[in-house]
Amino acid sequence: MNKIIAAAAAALCAVSLTACSGGNEPAPETSGVYTEISVSEEPASDAETEASAAESETEAEAEKSAVSCADIAAAVISSVELPSMAEVGADRVAMYLDLEVPEGCDFSMYICGSGGFADEVFVINAADMDIEAVKSAAEKRIESRIKDFEGYNPDEVDKLNDYFTKEKDGYFMYAVTCDNSVCESIFDEYVK
After folding, report:
1. What is the 3-state secondary structure (H, E, C) of 121-160?
2. Per-residue DSSP letters for the chain?
3. Pairing label, strands 164-168, 120-125
4. Rounded distance, CA 125 to CA 18, Å?
5. 125 vs 12, 46, 159, CA distance in Å?
6. Antiparallel, parallel or unpaired: β 85-87 and 171-176
7. Backbone phi, then psi, for 11, in 5-degree steps?
8. 122 vs 140: CA distance, rounded Å
9. Start-to-end CA span in the chain (Å)
10. Given Cys at both, which of 47, 112, 132, 164 links 180, Cβ 3.0 to 4.6 Å?
């Protein structure tokens, strides 16, 4: 009787193995690499949807904050005819503008290297600053430059009187160039 039970058990195992292997096809070999698949059958909750939307907004803000003042200034300098321009570092800004730029603040300033022309470009991300103080410093700079050039090079006074200035989303720019429309289009292109 034990032989009959053993034979029946063996036959049952054979039928089970055949059913699992999909018929007569051999079972696929594995190389020890397993892939875990997780399937969520529940729809996302309102909180998860809101979190995803907030994450997308944060990414958009990060993209926006990725606007570099140096890139804006460089675009102006390469697009507008300017005399030799010299970059003004953070340690020298106070020599030109009545403004203290906080450490780590993103800004870019260029002036005419020879001093013979009034051209200059100043761009700052003033989101953490008093924007009125920044505007006031720019206006004082322009007034001072007008006085400098009145008797020296009157043609430059026209550029100074018609200087470009714009503020948007914490960014501020002023530029003294011969082409304010190009300055404005560049600013608008970078600060959207």
Report:
1. EEEEECCCCCHHHHHHHHHHHHHHHHHHHHCCCHHHHHHH
2. -HHHHHHHHHHHHHHHHHHHTTSSSPPPP--S---------SPPPHHHHHHHHHHHHHHHHHHHHT--HHHHHHHHHHHS--S-EEE--TTTHHHHSS-PPPTT--EEEEEESSSSS--EEEEEE-TTS-HHHHHHHHHHHHHHHHHHHHTT-HHHHHHHHT-EEEEETTEEEEEESS-HHHHHHHHHHH--
3. unpaired
4. 72
5. 78, 36, 24
6. unpaired
7. -65, -40
8. 14
9. 88
10. 164
Q: In whole angstroms, what is the distance from residue 146 CA to residue 20 CA?
A: 91
Nearest CA to 111 out of 88, 90, 140, 91 is that of 88
Specify the amino acid at residue 65: S
Q: Give the largest CA-CA distance in the chain.
A: 125
Among residues 187, 98, 190, the alpha carbon closest in space to that of 139 is found at 98
Query: Which residue carries 């600053």 as its tokens?
Result: 129
Provide the residue-wise pLDDT of the chain in tens; the chain has 192 residues: 556 555 555 554 454 544 444 444 444 454 444 444 444 455 556 666 565 555 655 554 555 457 999 999 999 999 999 989 999 999 999 999 999 999 999 999 999 998 899 999 999 999 999 999 999 999 999 999 999 999 889 889 999 999 999 999 999 999 999 999 999 999 999 998
